Amino acid sequence: MSLKNKLLLAFYGDDFTGSTDALEFLTLAGVKTILFLQKPNQKDIDRFPGIQAIGLAGKSRSMSTSEMETELCNAYENLKSFAPNHFHYKVCSTFDSAPHVGNIGKAIEIGSEVFNQKTVLVSPSAPHLGRFCVFGNLFARMGTIGNGEIYRIDRHPSMSKHPVTPALEGDLTIHLAKQTNKSINLINLTTIEKGVSAVLEEVDNNQAEILFFDGFNLEHLKTIGSVFNQLANEKTLFSVGSSGIEMALGLDWKSNNVIANETAFEQAGEVSPLLVLSGSCSPVTSGQIEYALKNGFLEIPLESKAVVSEYQNEIIENAVSEIIRNFNNGKSTILHTSAGSNDPRIAETEAYFSAKGFSENEIQKQCSTLYGSVLGRITKEVLKAVPLKRILFAGGDTSSYAASELDILALEMIAPIAPGAPLCKAISDNKWLNGIEMNFKGGQVGTADYFIKVLKGEKL
After folding, report:
1. Distance CA 245, CA 135 (A)
2. CATH fit for domain 275-456, picks 3.90.1150.10, 3.20.20.140, 3.40.190.10, 3.40.980.20
3. Which side of the chain, N or C, has fewer Cβ within a 10 Å radius?
4. Per-residue pLDDT reduced to its tens digit, 62-104
């Protein structure tokens, strides 16, 4: 089978927003890609003639190591069965992880065994998103587009204060060493700058079990993509990193005529009203909520009691009724769990779980799971009642659980909005859900007018 006829890549995204990020960069590169929200079988794959890459949207970023063991073993084996040239464990471009939750080291250990690969390749940089890896240290722009300040990740105003996985170390080799006992090495910029041959020589001489790659610009990504493609010979090559891996591979595939020209999309156009479901605590999302409210959106602050089982049904019913009423009046609506990191609902929710005896780590998991589930249940009831055409989910962890409440088989990109957060079409056997346009955005994604842009279907 020729390279052009094989499945070029399969990926597992550790949350939903990150999964659509990878979907976008493959699609834009000219690779026909489908993102599945449940483990696909061959019949599912066959629904999409000409498919070249597949993804599986997961939620391992919010899982404990024991949960990851079960989740990832099954997911890896499922995707490996389609014999892709590459398998990518896709993580957030800010490398969100900790020993107790979303442990990337654990994901590497599982992948090394499943794919029988002694050395796992890790490429965190995503310069197209303002993420740069220099001598092992990760730097990130505030937001993913625009002229935001660039910070070392442990000094980043948002990521250093992340409620679940705060960035406390800038050197990713040290950060990852806290999550695994595997040996770690780095191919730094001085070698990357010398080109493919120099990098391949260093890879050949490497004895470590994890090998990081620096990256600062698109030329570096192209070098990394060429190296990875040359290493993917007889069997599937397992790698870990941001959507920079998709971009790196795409740059090399294009230069070797493996894929067609880049895909061009027209603007999606305005669809009103828009439903926004936000479980994000990010200051970026907070600013977007504030901007939208000043420009015609209405808000429904979800009560912190939504995580308490005896109040859930009533809160869900009230929220559904209010959203439907707003939509019947043509008003776009934001349902949010917080309006920034200082929102008192955060402390109220934490106090409730603390009184129940949950640890700090367990509290964050409960918040993501329960708030996400409630947002998903509300979405389902609204969709059954009104002919909604477009939905925006904000927040990586909560959106993963929210989308899981919906019976979506897969997502297909239909238009770009912001780098890493495309507009997608839901594919489902349920008539009330099939064809709905969805946008999944991480907390750091987008400018202040992001919700307005999604409403109008305009690219940032």
Report:
1. 18
2. 3.40.980.20
3. N
4. 899 999 999 999 999 999 999 999 999 999 999 999 999 999 9
